[in-house]
């Protein structure tokens, strides 16, 4: 039986490039397992389903080693599990040497293992570099004054006195915004809440 595994890192990313590469191998659509999830570990629903289906003599096709995952040690463990424990074959389309259906002698296996370790290391190193670049980007943005995290939650009843002062023309809208500490857009949302509180039958 021939299976294929496809992975993209996020739900809004497109897997078409990987699916196109699989066409010439005539993999049944029902045997193509797709995850839209980070490759940092193997806690992925469809990957687990795939592993549960694989049997001795089956073939698993993936576009590139980083589609399998990006954690060096975990890639090696999963490769051993598939090829040694389950005794299925793996074919990595972007790397001819990572094809366990070929060169099944000792030298072929040794070459495959060496290439796998090298590429697995490269995949994880790239993942770590991405995290480093993200951290540096966030740090640089914070220096420029960009704020991260959830937006501030305003307690409408507590801020009602400020609104009433504005309503009674004791302060200007600009002064009200400053006292509340919010944007004009947020202020208008709060105004609606204030008006609902004022119009409420319980008030």
Please describe what this structure looks like.
The chain is an alpha/beta fold and 203 residues long. It folds into two domains: 2-140, Rossmann fold, CATH 3.40.50.1390; 156-199, no CATH class. The protein has helices at 16-22, 45-53, 65-68, 72-85, 106-143, 156-167, 173-180, 184-199, and strands at residues 2-8, 32-36, 59-62, 89-92. A four-stranded parallel beta sheet has the order 2-1-3-4, with helices on both faces. Helix 4 (72-85) runs antiparallel to helix 5 (106-143) and helix 6 (156-167) packs antiparallel against helix 7. The longest helix has 38 residues, at 106-143. The chain starts with a strand and ends with a helix. The relative contact order is 0.09.
Offer a quick outline of the entry.
By secondary structure, the chain is an alpha/beta fold.
Please give the alpha-carbon distance between the first and last residues.
Answer: 71 Å
Q: What is the percentage of strand-forming residues? A: 5-15%
CATH T-level topology of the largest domain: Rossmann fold
Q: Major β-sheet, in short?
A: 4 strands, parallel
Number of helices, where a helix is a run of at least 4 consecutive DSSP H or I residues:
8
SS content category: alpha/beta
Rg (C-alpha, Å): 28 Å
What's the CATH architecture name of the largest domain? Answer: 3-Layer(aba) Sandwich
Tell me, what's the shape?
Answer: elongated
Read across the widest sheet, the strand sequence of neighbours is: 2-1-3-4
CATH superfamily heading of the largest domain: Resolvase, N-terminal catalytic domain
Question: Descriptors for this entry?
Answer:
203 residues; alpha/beta; four-stranded parallel β-sheet; Rossmann fold; elongated
């Amino acid at each position: 039986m021939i299976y294929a595994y496809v992975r993209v890192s996020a739900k809004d990313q497109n897997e078409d490039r990987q699916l196109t590469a699989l066409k010439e191998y005539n993999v049944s659509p029902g045997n193509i397992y797709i995850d839209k999830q980070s490759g940092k570990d193997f806690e992925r629903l469809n990957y687990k389903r795939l592993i549960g289906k694989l049997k001795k003599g089956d073939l698993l096709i993936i576009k590139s080693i980083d589609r399998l995952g990006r954690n060096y040690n975990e890639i090696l463990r999963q490769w051993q599990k598939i090829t040694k424990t389950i005794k299925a074959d793996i074919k990595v389309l972007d790397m001819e040497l990572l094809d366990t259906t070929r060169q099944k002698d000792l030298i072929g296996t040794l070459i495959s293992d060496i290439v796998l370790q090298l590429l697995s290391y490269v995949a994880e190193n790239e993942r770590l570099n991405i995290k480093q670049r993200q951290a540096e980007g966030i740090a640089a943005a914070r220096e420029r004054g960009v704020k991260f995290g959830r937006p501030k939650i305003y307690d409408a009843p507590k801020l009602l006195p400020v609104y009433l002062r504005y309503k009674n023309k004791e302060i200007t809208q600009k002064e009200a915004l400053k006292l509340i500490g919010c944007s004009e857009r947020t202020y208008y949302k709060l105004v609606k809440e204030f008006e609902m509180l004022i119009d409420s039958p319980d008030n």
